[in-house]
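hey so i finally got around to running both of the ones u sent me last week. sorry it took forever, my laptop kept dying halfway thru and i had to restart like 3 times lol. anyway pasting them below in the order u listed, first the sequence line then the structure token line for each. didnt double check formatting much so if smth looks off just lmk and ill redo it

first one:
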Amino acid sequence: MKKFLCFSLILLAFACASDPQKEMEKTIVGEWCNPYTYQSTGELKGFHFKKGGDCEAINIPSLELKSWEIKDGYLIVKGQEVAEDGTKEVYETKERIGLLTRDSLSLVVQEANPRLAFLYINAKKLKK
């Protein structure tokens, strides 16, 4: 019985130490690109999520991204959208994370039946 109790306490300690929010934040750091654009044009387009919440657009000149965060299962990206005439408007997206692994990120539209809105693949995986 003592062994079972000790084992249960160890499992509880690991469960409490693992913060899903922090795990998602660590996993999303890196370059994420649209696989369909890459497949059709060979061009990497997407987002570079950096440690500390900084963000940049990859090969999307109309976006000047500044920051990202994950809150309550949503990916929030902020910056500015730049029009052809140079004017800038506030850019902010809030998309529900459907799946996040080291290789893929899917963002879903939250309706009665969630559907895929955006799919991104880790750029390291695309370049292989």
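and the second one:
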Amino acid sequence: MKTEDEIIQSLIAGGIIGASLGVLIAKDKEEGAAIGALAGAVLVATYRASEKAKATNVPLIVLEEGSLYEKQADGTKRFIRKMKKPKAQLRNKFKLQ
């Protein structure tokens, strides 16, 4: 089984997470990287859950380019439906209080 550091490094190498987030996650906890440690734990847990789900041979529901697909363990996909774009617009800037 891969260690947390190996999982994070493979996610960075595979382009799943960006290098800047990888740096934040990889910081020592002593340097005040509690958020990075939390993000790293979430990523590792998500990765491990995904790997366990793949091993069950139960199809997954994935969103790709605005459409939902049922993805089988062998990689085949079945189109389910197109997703509507959300109408809510988020602001570009936020004021933290």
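quick thing i noticed on the 2nd:
Residues 34-55 form the longest helix (22 residues).
anyway thats it, ttyl
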